[in-house]
Amino acid sequence: MIIYNETAESFISHVLEQRIEDVLLTKVKEKISHSVSESEIRSWTNSLPEMARVIRDAELENNTHVLLEYKLPSSEKRIDFLVTGQNQAGEDHAVIIELKQWQKSEVADGDGIVKTFLGRRVRETVHPAYQSLSYQRYLENFNEALYDDTSIQLSSCSFLHNYIPNKEAEPLLDERYSSYLEQSPVYFKFDDKVLQKAIKEKVAIGNGADIARRIEDGRIGPSKKLVESVQSLMKGNEAFILLDEQKVAYEKALSIYQQADLETAQKEVVLIKGGPGTGKSVIGLNLMNAFLNDKANVEYITPNQSFREILKKKLVGRSGFTEVRNLFKGSGSYVQAPEDYYDVLICDEAHRLKNQGHMQRKIEGENQATQIIRASKIAVFFIDDEQMISKKDIGSVTLLKEEAEKQGAILHELELDSQFRCGGSGNFLEWVDDVLYEENQEIQLEGDYDFRIVDSPNELYEEIVMKRDGRLVAGYAWEWNKELVNGELPKDVEIESEQFAMPWNDPNRIDWAIHPEGKEQVGCIHTVQGLEMGYVGVIIGDDLTYNNDTQQLEVIRENFKDKGARPAKPKGKYKTDDLDRLVRNTYKTLMTRGMKGCYVYCVDEGLREYLRS
């Protein structure tokens, strides 16, 4: 969607008359009902006059077109500035220009990552060349006007109009960023003449209106190159092979898609229910591959950002094709999506769906399930009610059925039982359920899954992290202070009696589970849900204890520190506390992350002995 599409002459006039902010605000409200922050308005005020000067001095034909705030298809991201027109040879061009108000930066670890001052502090963010190039590649892989119509040639760059580069060693020009800079140049302050020349070479003759129209009206769907890339990473990869009932569920979901008439048929909702380790994600990724192969407009949704980023990194690492990342979205991405915009939306970890996403405009009577079903012709949800771990989690089987009925969708339900995690030990998962929910001690552990109760958190660290290259995780029984102390993460997960202290996982390191720094941090439930690792060490805090008198597990409300996830205390003597179920669900989820083994340390000695018994 293009928010602002005007001739170069009109754009320059709007800036010179100091009306550009008002014009943009009006168009944003008209087209996407999007609230605009003060920082966003400041960026218009500071950056657009700089671009108006560049465009004016480039001496372009008046019917060259300027596009502002172009919303990328099926994304919340918007391109700052895009100019369309023809070159001297009569070839159609579109140039993406990302605008930055930065003044300095630092190199940072990670591919295409830099540090700069954003949001009142220095943060890690993507290099401007990576950002502009990623937007270019995104359009080339999802907009048919750009991947099928080769007459429109797309290029990109960024303009840091306040930034004076360090002549001796400019961080943004460091060798580690060279591959991105070669494809998408960065222009600094005083580079305006060079930028003018680059723009003029591509669009000086004008005739940009039709080019802009073709880009905006281009059918949205995956390019052949993107489809082939996904197929190559799935083909022959044992991690994606479907076994037994996984194959059955996959074929049933696929047949529902194949029998549907995507042009005229009513909506269809597929619920695939299964506990930890039943292979829900494997089925989902195979379905995405099949739908892409059929040229369907499909996206893969994961509410948990950490799970989403790990999936992206593993897949991109295998394919070497970074545009695969754009197929994966958060569950809050569909607030403004038109009805039936997507052929298929696949939602993994649907139990983590929310009423509304963080910082989103709330729509009365809607939740994320409403929006996903509305935006798609076929919605596939993978769900496990026993992995709801916060009062904000609303994605239950019951709710999804209600939402499907409200929108007149045909409902299909499939069930998964066999376990493919925890060494394939269904016995271990049954034992965990018995211990945490039934408390009848009828099920005894059998088989060769490596499960132990240890006597200290230091022993847990030694056995899991040092000897088995695993990760430590814990329930939310400690406060989480996210501000650095003397440049380091505070060691909030502290057990004084055991002389043990480690920090929570770095909130800025969403790939904690696979990053080397993660070994010295404790993962929280919001970071690890959906992930799996070889070995996991679980610290059960004093939010879950064992009462020897009643011989029952007890959830201690005051020891549960995640205030945002904690439901209100029930009123009435015999009312059930919803927190009880959420804490038990949390520890079940944590204890079922390990494929080879799980070791547990309990702060409460009574619980330790109960589990050991």
**What is the strand content?**
15-25%
Give me the side-by-side strand order of the main sheet.
Answer: 1-2-3-4-8-9
Q: How many angstroms does the end-to-end distance come to? A: 62 Å
Q: Output the radius of gyration.
A: 27 Å
How many structural domains?
3
Please outline the major beta sheet.
6 strands, mixed
Q: Which overall shape is indicated by the principal axes computed on the Cα atoms? A: globular
Q: What is the number of beta strands? A: 24
Q: Report the structural category.
A: alpha/beta
Query: Percent of residues in helical segments?
Result: 25-40%
Oligomer: single chain
Mean pLDDT: 87
Uncertain residue segments: none
The number of helical runs is: 19
